[in-house]
Amino acid sequence: MARRKRIESVFLNIPYDKEFEDLYVAYIVGLTQLGLRVNATLAVPNQGRLEAIIGLIDESNFSIHDLSRIKSSKGIPRFNMPLELGLALYRSHATKGRHRVYVFESKPYRTQKSTSDINGIDPQIHHGTARGVMAGLRNILRQPGDVTTVPEMLISFRAVQRKLPELRLNAGGKSLFEASVFHDLTVAALVESQKLIESRVPTHRR
Amino acid sequence: MSAYVIGNPVPTPEELGRILGLSSERVAAVRSIMSTPPSRKSSKGASRAASTISFRKKGRSGTSSKVCGKR
């Protein structure tokens, strides 16, 4: 009989735009390969959205907030990511630090200026690269036995990236940021992860 | 700052699929996509890739989608 495992989960607070697609895939692959379930606001409808977001943060063990693209878009500042960071920080306060909050940025020292209230939190600087995201994730999270390496995560990232057109077609999504595609990306990342795990076992005979 | 050690092993695709409420057929379809080598060399594959690229470019220059409108 199949036993349902409890899997720790992470609330992922990132921008959803074309320019961020590579890093979006990098986050999904990296977090999934570390064994986490990724909670994102992709499937949250506009009605009751704030309540749903609070619920997602509540049920997540950690949250990751990428503040690399909060600058104004078409003259309008992007407040959603700092807003969700604030919700998560309150969640962390209310749970006495059990909900862990991690911040990612592309440029060093920028959060000290943009979000100086969180100066006690050292952001992970990814320099706008998938490798930077993976390295940041490995700095803050690890599997028991510490098996997954950044180069392995990058191999999986590239494998998933090559299959994005097919995965998107299969899920029937127009954008990578649709819930159906997002779910398939997490499964695809685990397929790659399994290949890596199997490749580590030198001889596996039945 | 020390890294947090995750309390569960990495799940299999099937285990995650169950948690996410995905059907086993869907998980199998993703598995199949990830298992097949890239089909760039065939003419059919090339045209499919080209159409996808043109779709992506169109999406980039077009109006924002439902999802992108959020942030």
What's the structural blueprint in terms of helices and strands?
The complex is a heterodimer of chains A (206) and B (71).
Chain A: E1 9-13, H1 21-33, E2 37-39, H2 49-58, E3 62-66, H3 80-94, E4 100-105, H4 110-114, E5 124-125, H5 130-140, E6 141-142, H6 150-162, H7 164-171, H8 179-200
Parallel strand pairs in A: 1-2, 1-3, 3-4, 4-5
Helix pairs in contact in A: 1-5, 1-6, 1-8, 2-3, 5-6, 6-8, 7-8
Chain B: E1 4-5, H1 13-20, H2 24-35, H3 43-61
Provide a compact summary of the structure.
The complex is a heterodimer of chains A (206) and B (71). Chain A has 206 residues and is an alpha/beta fold.
Write a concise keyword list for the protein shown above.
heterodimer, A: 206 residues, alpha/beta, B: 71 residues, mainly alpha, flat
Low-confidence stretches of chain B: 42-70
| N-to-C CA distance of chain B | 31 Å
The largest pleated sheet of chain A is described as:
5 strands, parallel
Taking the sheet with the most strands of chain B, its summary is: none
CATH architecture identity of chain A: 3-Layer(aba) Sandwich
Helix content percent band of chain A: 40-55%
Order of helices and strands of chain B: EHHH
- State the CATH class of chain A: Alpha Beta
**SSE order of chain A, one letter for each helix or strand:** EHEHEHEHEHEHHH
Compute the number of strand runs of chain B: 1
Structural class estimated from helices and strands of chain B: mainly alpha
Broad shape of chain A: globular
**Classification by helices and strands of chain A:** alpha/beta
Roughly what is the average pLDDT of chain A, rounded to an integer? 88
Distance between the termini of chain A: 22 Å
Shape call of chain B: flat
Strand segment tally of chain A: 6
Overview of the molecule:
In chain A, strand 1 (9-13), helix 1 and strand 2 form a beta-alpha-beta unit. Chain A has 8 helices and 6 strands. By secondary structure, chain A is α/β, with parallel strands linked by helices. Helix content of chain A is 47%, strand content 11%. In chain A, helix 1 (21-33) packs across helix 8 (179-200) and helix 2 crosses helix 3. Chain B has one domain (13-70). Chains A and B meet through helix 5, strand 6, helix 6, helix 7 and helix 8 of A and strand 1, helix 1, helix 2 and helix 3 of B.
